[in-house]
Amino acid sequence: MVSNALRSGFQTTIKLWKSAGKLAYFVLVDEEIASQDLATLRNDLFSRRWFLLSLVFLIATAIYLGCVLSPPSLMDDVDAVQAQIAKTMLTSGDWVTARLDGVLYLEKAPLIYWLMAVFYKVFGVFDWVARLPVALASIALATLSAYFGMWAFGERAGFYAGLCMSTCVGLFLFTRIQIPDVMLTFTIALALWAFLRALDEGEKRPRLWAAILASSLGAGLLLKSLVGIVFPVAAAAIYLFLSNQLFSRKTWRRLRPVSGSLIVLLIAAPWHVLATLRNPPYFAWTLQSGPGLYHGFLWFYFVNEQLLRFLNLRYPRDYNTVPRLYFWLFHLLWLFPWSAYLPAITKLPFKPVDRAGQTRLLAACCAGFVLVFFTFSTTQEYYSMPCYPALALLLGSAMAAGGKWIERGTRVLGATAALAALTAIAIAYAVRNLATPGDISSALSHHPLAYTLSLGHMLDLTFDSFAYLRLPLCLAGAAFVVGAVGNLRWSGMRAFLASSLMMVLFFHAARLALVVFDPYLSSRPLAEALLSVPPGKLIVDRHYYYFSSVIFYTGQDPLLLNGRFNNMEYGAAAPGAPSVFLNDSEFKVLWTSENRYYLVASEKGADRIEALVGKEHFETVATSGGKSLLTNVPPKRPAGTLPDAPANP
Q: Is 341 helix (H, G, I), strand (E, B) or coil?
């Protein structure tokens, strides 16, 4: 079923590309299509606007839907955790309270889990299905950015905004894991567009757009709690103040805040009320957070996860924060290749005298507020994703306007791509004869203190590790050659399309690289080994997150050895929490019994377990990516003849 669904999707994409080919030729050959040519081509694809929207959609589809394939497998940590929570909701029938291994997991809003569970119901429980909601949200965000830009600035600027959104590094990079930020970004972008449409004097259906605005805010609450409302409302309030509309009765009549608030409550309130009622106490008037303290859902979800996280006082502190300067500078990378055109934004008019000026001002308010907000808060690299559509709109407007800064940016981008191509080709050549024993984990260094940052594993790369990445390096080199030639030879739309093609190829090179990293970032090989041996009870050494992909792929509910910390700690303190946690002494009793157990552990963890229980109770079943699957060998029983574990150890 999986192969048929994917094959059908790819065949449809190919047909769409073929049908668009004729019009694409005219776009590439002549940026200013003659009126007679356009009239002819309208018979094929309705209009240029719909063709450009379709082109953005197809580019985004080629990237995001093309990268749902497995491998790469779901990664350990939050990637497989999100997929497992949705799987548990589907099988348990409890769509209100998220759980991991039966332990309450009250940190996150549920909409992403619901979407995954619905897709599981339709297509089956597979890793590629878990990726569909995020992939489709990415495609929708790129298409929305293009449509928003066309409404505000015209066809060409909207098309460029869609290219910027669909092919920027940040959107691809931060959708490799199943987090709801791209969905949140979509709801915020839609809310801002609906806000302007509701205020537009020429809009025939302001009531509808006010309802869309409210619905977007309600959905944002179910995706990432208060920021789903704070960001668009703050951007809109700043815009109204700067445009002298904040205290206008006419403004508020068009926005309909009373009926809008009712819509928000209708969408978001039921889950919040049910989650509160099912996870008492209902109210806890305290800011005290620490080991063993349990104050119910409402306190943890709003006080601990919103207020205390903003103040960097959340417990447990299982995250890190990016230095402020890096947080700002990294946006040159997250918006690459289009960050080459950022200086051109400063030349744009921001006076809200027309639709274009109003959109630019609102986009600037949104981007500015998000960046300043996280400058004074705890900050991960992907937190600023909600400002990407705003910056894409500004970039699209600047790229359509042209000028010397756009020309300079194109040449800078061409030179950058040429340098990147030379680097990729040189590295591929230098490692051509290096041996590649085992998997890539043997060639990596390890920086565990950096793993609380979303890009912490980047520090693990060594020169020798590139020997395992020869094919991705060659494809990346080819991609950069395309970008270099296109940007050094052409300008305007043809150069922008060359940059887009460069990024499509580069992202698929990155997917191939992730396949190589699969044994290191995922524990799926251990899961497959576990499924091939006689049944026994699974134990996870340390944190659930460390081996979450094993749990997803095997469908087992494990015992957790010394795992009562980080994300599992608060739920473990709840009344009626399941007895899934083991300390060393409890583990030793089980492990040295006559029953069969399996343990997944890191290399250091395996050494510790061997010292704890002795070699006679210790056998390695499989190793992968610096991790091991172990089993106990009860006294006087040879390996392979262990009795089954009891149903309830």
A: helix
CA 583 and chain centroid, separation:
34
**Which tokens sit at 230?**
């704070």
CA–CA gap between residue 600 and residue 73 (Å, rounded): 17
CB 293 within 8 A of CB 310: no
DSSP letter for each residue of 410-434: HHHHHHHHHHHHHHHHHHHHHTTT-
Residue type, 73: S
Residue 295 and residue 299: Cα distance in Å, rounded? Answer: 6
Q: How many CB atoms lie within 10 A of CB 586?
A: 13
Identify the sign of the CA torsion 610, 616, 617, 621.
Answer: positive
Residue type, 174: F
Confirm if 468 and 440 have CB atoms less than 8 A apart.
Answer: yes
Q: Residue type at 498?
A: A
Residue 50: what are its φ and ψ, rounded to 5°? Answer: -70, -30
Q: Which helix (H) or strand (E) holds 90?
A: helix 78-92
Contact call for residues 564 and 589 (beta carbons, < 8 A): no
Which residue type occupies 257? P
Contact 488, 479 (CB under 8 A): no
- CA separation for the pair 197, 194 (Å, rounded): 5
Report the phi/psi class of residue 643: left, alpha or beta, with left for phi > 0 and alpha for psi in -120 to 50.
beta
pLDDT tens-digit profile of 347-402? Answer: 999 999 999 999 999 999 999 999 999 888 766 778 899 999 999 999 999 999 99
Q: Using CA atoms in the order 116, 121, 127, 128, what is the torsion angle rounded to 10 degrees?
A: -90
Residues 615 and 609: their CA atoms lie apart, in Å, by: 9
- 312, 286, 318, 313: which is closest to 299 by C-alpha? 286
Residue from 337, 487, 502, 490 nearest 29 by CA: 490
pLDDT, one tens digit per residue, over 255-311 is: 999 999 999 999 999 999 999 999 999 988 888 888 888 999 999 999 988 888 877
CB 402, CB 396: distance < 8 Å: no
Contact 304/567 with Cβ under 8 angstroms?
A: no
CA–CA gap between residue 525 and residue 531 (Å, rounded): 10
> Across the strands, what pairs with 559?
539
The two three-digit tokens of residue 281, written as one number: 């106490």
CB 213 within 8 A of CB 260: yes
Give the C-alpha distances (Å, rounded to integers) separating 489 from 99, 410, 414, 425, 565.
Answer: 55, 10, 9, 21, 56
Cβ neighbours for 627, distance < 8 A, ≥ 6 positions apart: 523, 526, 547, 600, 601, 602, 603
Virtual torsion, Cα 461, 462, 466, 472, nearest 10 deg: 20
* Residues in the chain with pLDDT values less than 50: 1-3, 5-36, 38-39, 41-42, 44-45, 635-649
> Contact 333/174 with Cβ under 8 angstroms?
no
Tell me the three state secondary structure of residue 319: coil
Dihedral of CA 396/155/187/218: which sign? positive
Pairing status of strand 597-602 against strand 627-631: antiparallel
